[in-house]
Amino acid sequence: MFKKIKIGKISAVVFITSLIWIWADLALDATFESAVTITIAKASTNELLVNFDENQTSVNIEKIIFKGPASKTSLAQRQFNDGSFDTRFFFDPKLHGMTEPDEYSWDVLGFLRQNKRIKKLGVTVESCQPEKIKVNVIKLVKKQLDIQCINENRVVIKTSSIEPAKIEMFVPDQWSGDALLATLQLTRAEIEQSKLTGSVEKTPFIELYDQRRDAQSTVKISISPHQDNLIDYTITTPTLGITLSTTLQGKYVVKVLNENDVIGSINIRATAEARTAYENMRYKVILEIDDSDEKEKEPRRPLIYNFPPQFAGRGEIELKGQPVEAKFRLTPITAAETLPQP
After folding, report:
1. HSE of 302 in the Cβ direction (CA atoms, 13 Å)?
2. 11 burial class (0-12, 13-18, 19+ CB within 10 angstroms)?
3. Residue 133 sits in the same domain as residue 41
4. How many CA atoms, within 13 angstroms, populate the side-chain half-sphere of residue 48?
5. Which of 45, 182, 315, 328 fits 158 for a cystine, CB–CB 3.0-4.6 Å?
6. What pLDDT is recorded for position 8?
7. At 4, is the pLDDT very low, low, confident or very high (cuts 50, 70, 90)?
8. Is residue 179 helix, strand or coil?
9. Residue 272 phi, psi (nearest 5)
10. In whole angstroms, what is the distance from residue 303 CA to residue 283 CA?
């Protein structure tokens, strides 16, 4: 009888001790690392343009160290990893007093530490990279812009008329000459609608770095009748040209990952003369690589179809279907590879 009671007491002590160890383990602070994306909120006024350094509207904040009780950090990390926690955050310059044209330094670390969604996870932000970001607030002025019409492949379409021919929009003060141009992009269905009804109504837009701004009013477009003379052709000898900005030239080798798709046959609709001119083009498709692609592991870009301008401008050649999206990788050129060979 005595032995049974003693064993029972020992078991209870062991059980309580185990609970104490489990509680202590869960109470210990732990850390994990993750990343978020911060995007500038949609502008509430057309008179200002706001962007981060290098004219970007989004920035990746990497190597964020989160800290908290082990039980909280474990759950938070799982939510970051499985996508149940939205890692997209928005930056409203007005809330940070950035309402006048200037260059500002924004405390990203402070922003993340005060964020209510992160606080609800029960963790704190210990550090992040970068801790501060440059924010540019640029004054825009109202100017009259000409209007160009393009199709889904960004090829200029010949129009019979655009009413009104100009539209007023807010643009950077330094824009002048050919830069004062707004764009109308029509789908294939809209082009067909214009042919049936005589015109189609749509809103022009401009692109300010990587931001799109729509005009405050629509215009009416009538498409050139050349569209009726187009015949289906297949181009079986595609050739690829690659363009890089001066900041990327000499720094990277471009490796196209889906080459079979990129240089596969091209289906077009064109006049016979336009088709012949296109077949004589040195490069039939162009992969245009931007500076922002340098930050991506495997960037993607839709191909630009290098239609002869004199025929594209008259609407005598167009792509059938959607542009092929090129997947590629930028591999740094080592210093040794750039040295002249003996």
Report:
1. 9
2. exposed
3. yes
4. 20
5. 315
6. 54
7. low
8. helix
9. -60, -40
10. 12
Helices 2-27 and 70-82, packing angle to 10 deg: 60
Instruction: Give yes or no: residues 133 and 197 share one domain.
Output: no
pLDDT of residue 178: 84
Amino acid identity of residue 3, one-letter, is K
Last residue of a domain, one of 111, 137, 163: 137
Is 5 among the domain residues? no
Is 18 contained in some domain?
A: no
CB contact set of 258 (below 8 Å; sequence gap of 6+): 326, 327
- The H or E element that residue 34 is part of is strand 29-40
Structure tokens that stand for 334 in this block: 């080592």
Q: What is the pLDDT of residues 89-107, one digit of tens each?
A: 999 998 898 989 999 999 9
In this prediction, residue 167 carries a pLDDT of 94
Q: What whole-number distance in Å separates Cα of residue 36 and Cα of residue 128?
A: 10
- The CA distance from 189 to 205, in Å, is 19
Provide the residue range defining the domain that includes 188: 140-226
* Number of domains the chain contains: 3
Determine the longest span between alpha carbons in the chain, in angstroms: 108
Q: What is the mean pLDDT of residues 112-137?
A: 94
pLDDT of residue 191: 84
Q: What is the pLDDT of residue 192?
A: 81
CATH code of 98's domain: 2.170.120
Q: Domain containing 323 — which CATH number?
A: 2.170.120.30
C-alpha pair distances (Å), 293 with each of 133, 171, 206, 212, 332:
20, 26, 22, 19, 13
Q: Using CA atoms, how far apart are residues 92 and 44, in angstroms rounded to an integer?
A: 10
Residue 253 and residue 333 share a domain:
yes
On the question of pLDDT at 26 being above 90, the answer is no
Residues 6+ apart with CB under 8 A from 77: 32, 34, 66
